[in-house]
Amino acid sequence: MNRNYRFGILGWPLEQSLSPLIHQAALADCGLSGEYNLYPVQADPLDTAAIGDLLAEVRSGKLDGLNVTISFKQTVLDYLDELSPAARAIGAVNTIYQQNSLLLGDNTDAPGFLQDLRNLGWLDELGARSSVLILGAGGAARAIVYALLQPGCKLAVASRRQGQAEALIRSIIPQFQLAVPGTLQACTLQKGFLSEIPHPDLVVNTTPAGMFPGVRQSPWPVDEPFPAHARVYDLIYKPATTCFVEQARGSGLAAASGLGMLVEQALLSFECWTGTRPDKKAIFAALAKSDKKEVDI
Ligand code: NAP
Fold it and tell me: pLDDT tens-digit profile of 181-224?
């Protein structure tokens, strides 16, 4: 008898999530049957009973895998038995599954981001001497810092609130074996800040500024020129072309948005759960056909 996989995503809000579409396309491409459901759980006040019930379903094998999104990536840590090295270092989980009755948490955002840089042909150019400017110092920034320490990049983290980037760096240095003194620098995201990081090779936006529905926003300070020759990556995938990406392209820079990372992190989760990997082209074809109009791929 054919197995019927059951996956889902825990978060709030979830109506705009592209994950069901991606995972249904992955199941179809691999010739597997199954479903991917939305599990919206209230964050304020935190519905701990709902999280506990959902994770009990993973532990019992009723659910084969769970993704976790804003704002639960850190909340679920307390419910898990084991963490992958990446999830432990980043301090956040986006993929949960069960093995020998143990609940395991992984983080596929970091390798998903690196894979998309590889797909773009940008990763080979980043090495120990490269300098990367990361805008924002929240959960996604931690995954990007972890990812970019692997090729040994020098990183500057810029937060709009003075002290937030310093706090991120202070908290991750003991976690990240790869961080060597001088590799990480903090600064404030404001006009003139580029004088502290004069020639970044890559600029990565990890803030939600510009994300649907606030599509006219950009994290880039007004009247700050873009650094010459940098590549620009925006983690936002909705809209597919953000204001920040448009500004960078308008300054003659190569720029990409986060849809490729979204697909890569999803496929890594799918692989954890099923041991199989679908053809990426099938996923992009399904996204292109979808009626989620903001995805203008
Ligand atoms: P988060 O934990 O809330 O962190 C957001 C960070 O951005 C904080 O440092 C926040 O500072 C800052 N920020 C917010 N609005 C800003 C603005 N207008 N200007 C400058 N800084 C601002 O959120 P997250 O989980 O890191 O997610 C961030 C974004 O990454 C979201 O858009 C999410 O969809 C995207 N993401 C994409 C992927 C993908 O696969 N492509 C994966 C993960 C995340 P304050 O604390 O001062 O607000």
Answer: 678 999 999 999 999 998 999 999 999 999 999 999 999 999 99
Q: In what order do the strands lie in the sheet with 82-83?
A: 33-40, 4-11, 65-68, 95-99, 102-106, 82-83
End-to-end CA distance of the chain: 38
Is any ligand 1 atom within 6 A of the Cβ of residue 164? Answer: yes
Task: Check if the beta carbon of residue 256 is closer than 8 Å to that of residue 282.
Answer: no
62, 73, 154, 292: the catalytic one is: 73
Q: Name the residue of 206, 270, 294 whose CB sits within 8 Å of the most ligand 1 atoms, as the mutation to test its pocket.
A: 206
- Alpha-carbon separation of residue 116 from 7, 107, 121 (angstroms): 24, 15, 9
- Measured from the CB, is residue 273 less than 6 Å from ligand 1? no
73 is catalytic: yes
Shortest-distance atom of ligand 1 to CA 209 = 18
Phi and psi, residue 291, nearest 5°: -90, 15
Residue owning tokens 């948005």: 257
pTM above 0.85, yes or no: yes
